[in-house]
Every structure is written in structure tokens, then in C-alpha cells.
Amino acid sequence: MQVKESLAWLTDVHEAWTGEELRVKLRVEPRRYYEISFVLKRYDKAILDAALFANVLHETATVPDRLRWSLPIWCDMQKLGADLAAGVGTVSGIVTAGYDFRAGGLVALIKARASYEFNRFACLRPEDYELMTIDTFDANSITFTDTTTKDFNAGSLLLPVRVARLDSPVDIVDALGGAQSYDGTAAFQCEVAE
Q1: Which residue has the higher pLDDT, 82 or 182?
Q2: Residues 163, 176: contact at Cβ < 8 Å?
Q3: Would you tell me how many other CB atoms lie within 10 Å of the CB of residue 160?
Q4: Is pTM, for the whole model, over 0.90?
Q5: Which residues contact 96 (CB under 8 A, 6 or more apart)?
Q6: Would you tell me how many other CB atoms lie within 10 Å of the CB of residue 148?
Q7: What secondary structure, in 3-state letters, does 76-111 show?
Q8: Phi, psi at residue 174, to the nearest 5°?
Q9: Residue 155 per-residue DSSP state
Q10: Residues whose CB falls within 8 Å of the CB of residue 65, separated by 6 or more in sequence, listed in order
């Protein structure tokens, strides 16, 4: 898997007749885009097709959240240094400075065994991960709004998650012929935090 991040600012430039410029920032934060390139096996493509189809059908007249995804920020991944038991609302012994953690944001916890299997192109099962909402954080700990429902041993992964939407259709190409392997690319735009 290859991930490419890009940022887009928006600035309005006013030029006076004297040649002086006034630059006005039109966005508080830049827009963040992620382009992810990946390889899929036949069964993984079926799972992706089902997820894309379910996501399109999820749109309703009152909730316009079509094509919204929880996008893990893989470049900000950390391993837990100690076990995290079910029923705990705080994780400590991690570094938060310089990482994409924010109050009200999401965090994914992925069990160590599942992360190894995921690296070998196996899918995550619901019992192998948990999404938590951040209440507060400091330099080396995060407090969640709720408590965990699963046990996570040392070596499990902790990574921030952003709500994102597909920026364009997912591009999937039969790489080897015969539907054995697929090369895919997905482009996401992260929602701007308020």
C-alpha cells in the first residue's frame, strides 16, 4: 500500500496600483487529500465492491453522508507499549505531539495479531479493532469519551482516524489477467474540523 498526502490552501491576492499585495486567507485550515494505491486479491475486491455499494445506498434525504469513510492516518500509527484492558477509558505511554490527534476526533485500536494479518492482505474482522472518540489528550496520553469494549495487548496499533469522502470513483484494474490480482487507487478528501 502506498499513501500520498497533499494539502491545498486558498488565498485571495489583491494587488494595488502601486504594486503592493494584500493576501487574505480564505480557509482556516488547508484541505487534506489522500491518494491510496493498493493491491487486492479476488476476495478482497469482493469486500471492497460490497462496501462501496453499501456506502452508496446509505445516502438518505435527511443525512447527506454519501461516500463518507473513516480513513485511518497510517503515517501516524503507533504501537501500544503496554496492555490495554477492556473497560479502560485512557491510553498512556504514547506520543501525541506532531500526530493527528484532536479533541472530538477518532482513534482506531487494532489488535497486534490482526495488524499482522492485515499486512498480508487479509481483512480486519469487527472483533479485531475498535473506534474510539477522543475526549482530551496531553503529551503522552489520550482520554476517550467512553471505555474500550475489547482487550488490546502490547504491540497493538493506535492510529488517528479522519472522516473523509471519496474524491473520485475508486479505480480498480485487473493487474495480471484472469481476475487473480487487482491494482487499485482511491482518492479521499478529509473533512475540515470545525
Answers
A1: 82
A2: no
A3: 23
A4: no
A5: 137, 138, 139, 140, 141, 142
A6: 18
A7: HCEECCCCECCCCCEEECCCCCCCCCCCCCEEEEEC
A8: -70, 110
A9: T
A10: 58, 59
